[in-house]
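User: What would this chain look like folded?
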Amino acid sequence: MEKWLDLKDRISKETKRIWLQEPDELKIQRLGLLKNKAGSYGQYFGTWDFANGMMRDLSMYTMYPLFKLFVSDKYSLDQMKDMYTQIVPVYTEYLRYSGYPTLGKYCTEFRQIMPEITEKGQFLEVYKALLMYSNKLAAWVYHYAPWEMGVVYRQKNEEWVKEAARLLSIQD
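Assistant: Here's the prediction, encoded as C-alpha cells.
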C-alpha cells in the first residue's frame, strides 16, 4: 500500500473511533494530567484554553480556507505542499506539546511523505482525512469547554454601572 493511502486510512479510522468517544489524549489534557506539565505556575488552564482555541482556529479558520484554495485548481501540487508545510505546522507543533500528540504525529508524517505524493488527488485525500480528524477534535473541545465559567463574566448593564459608580464615590 502506498504511504499516502496508508496514512489517510489510519487518520480516517481514528476519526471514526473518536466519533462518539472522547479521545484519551483530550481527556488527559482536560483533566490536567499531561506528563510534560505544560502550563505556568502549577496550573494548566491557560495551556488548555490556548491549545483548544488553536485547535478551533486550525480546523475552522485555517484548514477549511486552505482546502478551498487547494480545490480551486489555481495552485500546483508543489504550491499546495508548500502552503501546507508553511502554515499548518505553526499550529500542530504547539498542539502536539499541549496535549494533541496524535494530531502532531499525523501532521509530521504527512510532511515526511510529501515527496512521494505525485498527484493532487493523493494530497487532497490525505488532507481531507486530516481536516475531518481536526474537526472532530475541535468538536470534542467545544463539547467539554467550561462554559459554566461564563456566569461570572456577565455583560454589565447601565444599572450595574451606576451602582458601581455609587460604591466607588462613597469610599474615602
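The chain has a mean pLDDT of 94. If you want, I can go into more detail on any region.
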